[in-house]
Amino acid sequence: MALTVLLDLRLKAEAVANAPAMLRDILTGTRAFDGCLGVDVLVDAEDSSHLILLERWASAEADSAYRAWRAGAGATELGSLLVSAPQVSQFEIATDI
Questions:
Q1: What are phi and psi of 21, to 5 degrees?
Q2: What is the rounded CA–CA span in Å between residue 18 and residue 48?
Q3: Is residue 60 part of a domain?
Q4: Are 7 and 52 in contact (CB under 8 A)?
Q5: Residue 8 is part of which domain span?
Q6: Taking a C-beta distance cutoff of 8 angstroms, is the pair 5, 82 a contact?
Q7: Fewest beta carbons within 10 Å, which of 35, 63, 71, 81?
Q8: Reduced to 3 states, what is the DSSP secondary structure of residue 89?
Q9: Distance (Å, rounded) from C-alpha 66 to C-alpha 83?
Q10: How many domains, the chain?
Q11: What is the CATH number of the domain that holds 60?
């Protein structure tokens, strides 16, 4: 079953200007990862330091494999731009509603 993941990011004030370039590089790998159906970046209209990454995955297993890769060989410096750890929420489509 497909999975939608929201990754809630809070950037350091001094990182807002440089974050788009780093995110473009990071998301190239994310979008190419097996099972990734797409990633959109949402910027808070009132606070440009608040981003939501809307990720769509073919399955929970594909998302898990991606998270494991990012924790190991695919690790990035994204954490250096953040004021706190990203908040991750996973959602499945409710087909009975």
A1: -65, -45
A2: 12
A3: yes
A4: yes
A5: 3-91
A6: no
A7: 71
A8: strand
A9: 23
A10: 1
A11: 3.30.70.100
